[in-house]
């Protein structure tokens, strides 16, 4: 089973984090860990929702996960970017060849550190992508990296992750279940 770390800092966008986590969970293909970049496990979303993470980010290493997901939320993204432990973990994940996926404002972190140079990507308008090849799309898959445009595309972003990481059949099964349909056998 693949392992996924979802990075959270105060001000994260709750739909981007939790809807993504829910879809990933429904695939039964991943062991998901919420990592708090705060002093404790409680992390406050941009709308004030308190989420209890599973582990402190500073106590994590790239050995703990195969895939990293970074939700947006302007304050959360700026908090992660200003956090030495978070940036170190992100950079080490990239160096280790981990799959790193980001949505909304979060792709700007990857752009600022040069990871998106020459890659197709999307993000919330107004956030910098560095030398990425901007795509006016809801979700962009470029190799092992997925970027999503905004909160409104959280479900599509999550489905793209399932499709890439667990396969098309797993994604079709989840999608059918979401709509109350029986998956075709």
Automatic annotation (TrEMBL):
Protein name: DJ-1/PfpI family protein
Superkingdom of source: Bacteria
PANTHER family per UniProt: PARKINSON DISEASE PROTEIN 7 HOMOLOG, PROTEIN/NUCLEIC ACID DEGLYCASE DJ-1-RELATED
One GO CC annotation: cytoplasm
Residue ranges occupied by any DJ-1/PfpI domain in the UniProt entry: 2-163
InterPro entries hit by this protein: Class_I_gatase-like, DJ-1/PfpI, Prot/Nucl_acid_deglycase
One Pfam family matching this protein: DJ-1_PfpI
């Amino acid at each position: 089973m693949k392992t996924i770390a979802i990075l959270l800092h105060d001000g994260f966008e709750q739909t981007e984090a939790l809807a993504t986590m829910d879809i990933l969970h429904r695939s039964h293909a991943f062991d998901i860990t919420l990592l708090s970049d705060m002093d404790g496990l409680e992390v406050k979303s941009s709308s004030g929702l308190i989420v209890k993470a599973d582990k402190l980010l500073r106590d994590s290493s790239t050995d703990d996960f195969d895939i990293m997901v970074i939700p947006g939320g302007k304050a959360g993204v700026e908090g992660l970017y200003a956090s030495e432990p978070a940036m170190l973990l992100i950079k080490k994940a990239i160096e280790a060849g981990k799959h790193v996926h980001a949505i909304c404002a979060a792709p700007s972190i990857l752009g600022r550190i040069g990871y998106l140079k020459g890659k197709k990507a999307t993000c919330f308008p107004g956030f910098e992508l560095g030398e990425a090849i901007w795509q006016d799309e809801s979700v962009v898959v470029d190799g092992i990296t997925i970027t999503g445009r905004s909160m409104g595309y959280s479900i599509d972003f999550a489905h793209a992750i399932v499709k890439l990481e667990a396969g098309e059949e797993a994604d079709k099964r989840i999608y059918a279940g979401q709509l109350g349909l029986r998956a075709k056998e």
